Fold M14 family metallocarboxypeptidase.
Amino acid sequence: MTTPYPIGTPGTPWTDSEKTAWFQAQTVKRSYREEVLSRILPLGERFTLERYGALSIAPDEFPLYAVKNQWQDGLPLALVTGGVHGYETSGVQGALDFLHHHADDYAGKVNLLIAPCISPWAYEIINRWNPKAVDPNRSFVPDSPSEESAALLALVAPVKDKVLMHIDLHETTDSDESEFRPALAARDGKAYEPDIIPDGFYLVGDSENPQEGFQKAIIDAVEKVTHIAPPDDKGNIIGSLVVQHGVINYPVKALGLCAGITNARFTTTTEVYPDSPKATAEECNAAQVAAIRAALDYMLAHQ
C-alpha cells in the first residue's frame, strides 16, 4: 500500500490552495546563475545569444536564453532543447557541453538553434513542474498554461516550418516514482499506479512520424557511451511498447510535448537514467552529447 501524497485529499483534484501549498514547500537546491548562466553567457564570444524571455516569478534571476551559430542561407536548421523539466540535469549540461566543445564542428554545415534550459526555476528546485504545478512538457499548446512552454513556442514560431531536426533532451529518474508521479496523481485526484524505472538510455520517437533509421543511429552512437534500457517482461518501457532497440513512440503533438513544436522531419526525445549504478553524471552528459551529434550527422546524411 502506498503512502498518500502529503498535500491534498486522495481522490480529490487540487485547488489553488493545494497548489500554493506545494509551491511553498519547494526549496532552492542549486543555482541557475552559477551552474547554467555562467556557461551560457561566455558563449556570446563565439555565438549569438538571444534572450527570448524571462520567468515572471523573478525576471532578473531567470532570463531565458537561446544560442545560435552563424546562420547561413541554404543550410538545414536543427533545434536542440534541454531542461524542459528542470530536474533533468544532463539535458541542460549536455546541451551546454555540446555548445562548448562540439558546436563549432557544424559551422557552415548546420544552422543551430539551442535552448539549453527552458525551465530555470525548476532547475533550481530540482523539480518537474513550474511554479504553478504545471508540467511544461504537456503544455506546448496554444494558450499554454506554462510560460516556459509559451516562451519557447514564441521563439520557434518564425522557423517551425524550416526546422529539419529537433532533439529534446530529458532524463527518467528514480524520483519520477518517489515524487513526481505520486504528485501528479495527487494533483489530478487519481490513484497512483507504481511503474518500473528503466535502467538505461532510451528514446521516445513520434508515433505519427517514427523515423526508425534516425532513432537507430542515435541509439547506436549512445550505446558506445552508456547502456541502453532493456524492455520489461511485458516488452515495454514505462508502459509503452518497445518498437526497436531502446525506442518507444508517443503521439508527441497530441500530447503537447516539446518534441512536437515544429514540423521537423527528424524528431526524438532522449531519456537518460542518471540514477543507474552503471552510469556517472559525466557519462549521462556524454550520452546527451553523443545523441545530439548522431542526430545532426544523420540529418546531414539524409537531408
Notes: The helical segments are 16-24, 32-40, 89-101, 120-125, 147-156, 175-188, 212-222, 281-302. Strands lie at 48-54, 63-68, 77-82, 111-115, 163-171, 202-206, 236-237, 240-241, 247-250, 266-272. The chain is about 30% helix and 15% strand.
